[in-house]
Every structure is written in C-alpha cells, then in structure tokens.
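Posting here for the record, re: glutathione.
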Amino acid sequence: MVHAPFSLLPMTFPESHWKLACEVAPIFNELIDRVSLDGKFLQDALSRTKKVDAFTSRLIDMHSKMLEINKSEEIRLGLHRSDYMLDEQTKLLLQIELNTISSSFPGLSCLVSDLHRSLLKYYGEHIGLDSSRIPGNTSVDKFAEALAKAWTEYNNPRALVLVVVQPEEHNMYDQHWLCAALKERHNVTTIRKTLAEIDKDGEILPDGTLLVGGKEISVVYFRAGYAPTDYPSEAEWRARVLMEQSSAVKCPSISYHLAGTKKIQQELAKPNMLERFLENKEDIAKLRKCFAGLWSLDDSDIIKKAIERPDLFVMKPQREGGGNNIYGDDVRTNLLRLQKEGSEEDAAYILMQRIFPMVSPTFLVREGICHKDHAISELGVYGAYLRNKEKVIINEQCGYLMRTKVSSSNEGGVAAGFAVLDSIYLN
Ligand code: GSH
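Prediction output follows.
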C-alpha cells in the first residue's frame, strides 16, 4: 500500500477565478442534463466518431437501444467534475474537460485541504501563509449527500447503493471514504461489484427492479466502465446494458456518460450551440468564457495551422481516465498521417487549444519522499445534480480537486500516476 501523492503546501490561485469556477458548476450540471435529453443531438454529433472508435460505438449503440425502447430516467443523478487550467498569458480560466463518469477523488481531495489547513495553522506564520485562505472543501459530504438523496427518492429503505469498481482498483480508499460517509451520515449501505460480477449475480425483475446477489439496487454509482479495458469480454457489456435497462438510478446513465464526451464538448463550443440547451443569456456568456478553442478534424484551416504550430494544440481521442492525449511534434506527425491516409479515423479525435498555466516551484510528496520541482496545476470543481421528474432536488457546486504535476509532464491524472493531490490558497 502507498499513500496518495500530495503536495506539501497549497497552490496559490486567484480568488476571482475560483469564484467563477464555483458559479458555473450548477450551469454545467444543468447543461449536461439538457443535452442528455436530446437523444437525436447526441446520436448525430457522435455519428462520425461511432464509425472509427469501437469502444464509443458500443456506448452509442447502448444509447440508441434505450431510445428505441423509450427508456425514461425519472430520477437523474449527476456527480460531475469540471476541470480547468488558468492560462497565464490571457488570464482566462479555461475548461479542459467535464467528467460525467467516475469523477475521482471526492473522498481524498477534501482531506488534502484539511491537511494543508492544519499545516498552515501550526507553521503558517513562519512562511507567511494564513490557513483561512484555503477554502472549505465539501466534496465528500456533498457527494455522499447527493447519493443519499437519490437513494431516498428511489424510496425503498432496504435497497442498496451499488458501486461498480474495477477488479484491480488502486484508488479504492477514495471510494471507501465516500461510502463510509454515506453509511455514517445517512445510514445508506453500499456494495462493491465489478462488471463481471454484476453479469454473474445481476438480474432484472419484470417491473425493472435491479437485483444483484438477490439484493435490490437503488443507485448504481460507476467508478469503472469509462475505459475500453473495463470491458475485456461480452460479460462486462451485458452487465452495463442490464443496469441501463433497469429502473435503478444510474450515475451516470448512458446519456449523461455520452454528454460528457470530448466530441460533445467540442460540439457545444460551436457558435449558437449553448442557446439550444440553455435560456439564460448571462449563464450562456459565463460558460462560453470558459471554453477553450475546440475543433473537429474536418476543419481544414485549423489542421493547416496545427501542422505549422503543433505546440499550440493538443490532439484528444475520445478516451476518459487520462494518459491518451497527443502533444507537440506528435500532433503534426499524426495529422499528416491522417491527411495522407484520407481515412475517417480523424473523427476519433478533436483538437484543443493548448493552455499554458503558470509554472511555480512546488514540494511534491510521493511514497513518503518530498521532491522539489517546477509544477503546474489543474483545478477541478465538483458538481452534483439530482432531479426527480420535473423537480430539481440538488443543483450545486460540491467542493474541489486541485491537481499539481511537474511542468515537463504533459499528462494530468493522479490515478494515472502523473499528478499529486493539492489544494488552493486564495490570493
Ligand atoms: N477507477 C478510478 C476511480 O474510481 O477513482 C479512476 C477513475 C478515473 O480515472 N477517473 C477520471 C478522473 O477523475 C475521470 S474518468 N481522473 C482524475 C485523476 O486521476 O487525476
């Protein structure tokens, strides 16, 4: 067992940008909900991706199957995390991505804020830092509360929350911490199962009730199922479809999952797209301000520019979980290859403006050892959304995850082994 990597001291972050990231969280929650309701939009926007990306294609098939059977989701639970970087030159807070499935670290990130606050309480005056400048981090409380409220809406006191996990989960303490809060504060019991186990032990009753090992499931909380490697055989796909067809609350449902894909992020950044889903002009303007440049690969002007200046772009395939993006000269090589082949494989990628955050010296602690290095940070803001039919029960910002990584590394994830958990020091 190794401890989660963390930074010794919190990273400075401008208060105005922090406030903006919190303010847009409920707007993004609502946007995801609205987009998820537009089955045709999701299918059309992803139709080219479907042809070239076998994994996403199966998710899309599952979605069309649900559309065909007119599957309605009355209780809708979203536990999202929107990630941002602060571009140093433009001073803009730009969205990297919005995670609608398996948003990691709601359990541990608030502990790092507590750790930093306590360190500053004892040693802060020696280094001129004040513990009250670290904002409260409610991630575990709020996510547990949202899961508990979804369980309450489902309305069977004997039903359980099912946490769908990977067979070899390295980040299980983050999940356990959240489940412990759910049990201690709300007396809701969770069980943990892999997709293969659910295939073996799961069934649906004629009324749509999901049973796993004979126990009724009220809420399915996915901490697996976002990556192709989570589906090594047909068994895992069967389990996913089984849960999707059931009347249990899914976090996320297949339509929430697809609404969080990079292709949809890029579609939503097109002019006049947000207006399709949201009414409030101020809300729309706030979201748009956070959008980085995003393009599909059928935009020949931008391809030309990216081949000339690959350092200004990131090429992103439709994958979650980190570690899949293409940077630097590899952007050029891949774009030239795709151009030469003239295949439709280009639909598997989007291009995003590269963001250049401020680099600062940081102490990073890994496996008990402290290293000093130059680092950059990415701020994630959690959001929870719960709706039963027309009634919105929760729509709020739920704390944050600051991640810091050495500036020479392009990749971002803590779970993928690149970044450390951090918190923020407002200035
Ligand atoms: N299975 C792990 C978990 O449940 O914590 C990892 C899930 C995962 O990689 N989640 C992505 C994430 O939030 C979103 S799909 N990564 C943040 C990070 O690793 O820094």
